[in-house]
Amino acid sequence: MSPSQLDMMSRCGEAYRRRYIEGQRIPPGIAMLSGTGVHAGAEVNFRQKIDTHVDLPAEDIVDASVDGFDRALSRGYERGPEDEHPDVARDGVAEMARLYAEEVAPEYQPRFVEQMVRIELPGSHDMLGVLDMADDAGRVVDLKTSGKAKSQAEADASPQLTFYAAAHKVLTGNLAETVRLEVLVKNKTPKRVMLESTRGPADFAALANRINTASAAIEAGVFLPADPSSWMCSPRWCGYYSTCRYVAQRERVFVDLAGSDTGSAQPIVRAATRAKSYASPLARMLDMDPHCAMCRCELSKRTALLGFIVPLSAGGANSPENYCLSCRACASRRLTTKSSE
User: Residue 237: what pLDDT?
Assistant: First the structure.
């Protein structure tokens, strides 16, 4: 079990079930891709710095970060109504990468960068994850991007930082001197927030107990959904929201936010209805809605498996508003979902 899996299981067992048991992958959001880009630039810099002991020029780090963002973007993404345009996000990646190059990178001489570590536990699951970075002063660091500053309480309680500290013990035989959250906050003017904490044997024991309890729940098939009032139980933060059986579904809205091939920057919004019930997923695949504009497409079959049927509009089968959810795989379109009461 990885730190990210444990985090998802703790936040929402239903999301964990769909992602890791059912294998239902969803495209990442723009905010996640921004973090991926900044991490790419930091990794390029820190990896070479292990040997050179010198940071790359700031412009090189910025270029590596933007390239990482673009690569992630090309693999597909979902953009919701509240998310920024990719071009705006790209500019934000460049600004945060420059902040990293000027304020964060000079402070560390890395020893381990993106190091895979397996931690054996006295339970049914070991923990497998990637140590972000540890330096030659015995500090382990988790670099994050965020729309708002983190709190000291988050640094003190973070299971991910506990894992990093345990990984440092496995790799070096020594406890980490400190654990740090290096947060690049995306304000109008980006700022750096550094939060420092410590970890010890009691923290490692608590993490092991958490992992063993999560493992037992998974083996028993118990996947508790998130509290519906939680910030993450929303269409903006959960890609499974619009098809979740624990969410009261009234209406779905599909939004084509590309607009590049139609000459319009405005999204095309239309309603979609809930699919009827089927005895099995195979039955659903075989009984595609005849009104779907792309019902013969394999991706449309996957759309049906997720429980959507898209009605034909007055514009005709070839009009942009008739592309179903599967068209998020098309290079010229990116679709998302929004639920409303």
Answer: 79
